[in-house]
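debug: dumping io for the single-chain case to check the tokenizer round-trip. Nothing else runs in this session.
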Amino acid sequence: MKYAHLLKLTVFSHENEDSESILDAFLSFFPFNLEDNKISMKKTNASGFSETKIEIFEIILTKNNLINQFLDNLLDKLDENQKETILRQVESRLDNNLDLFLRFDKDSWIKDKKLLLTDSGKCFHLKMSVAAFPKKREVALNVIKELLSK
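debug: decoded output
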């Protein structure tokens, strides 16, 4: 089944953080070899408050097979409480374009390989463009519910 048209994962690495650990943790979200699948990682340099240097890592998936592998891997790492939280909050996490937004705590993923939902900015950002046919909010909500009950 097609759950998403596009997945985008991003993370910010501030100059006072261990950029290598963040990059390793970021890449560990992907259960397949990016190079073999011709997926490139975009790295952008930016300036934050007080001119601090920030690196932004971003990967976009558009192939259904890779999206499904990513989602299966992600769901395996989410415990039932996290899945229930997403279901409870799904209305506020789904925008008018039918994009679902999730944030995962950076520290708990880097240190413990544990996915924890967070509202803080210190996180991995996941944007999932839900594959809803027809493109209606109710259909998108059902797709998300089906995905989380897998």
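debug: round-trip ok. The domain at 4-148 is CATH 3.30.1440.10 (50s Ribosomal Protein L5; Chain: A,).
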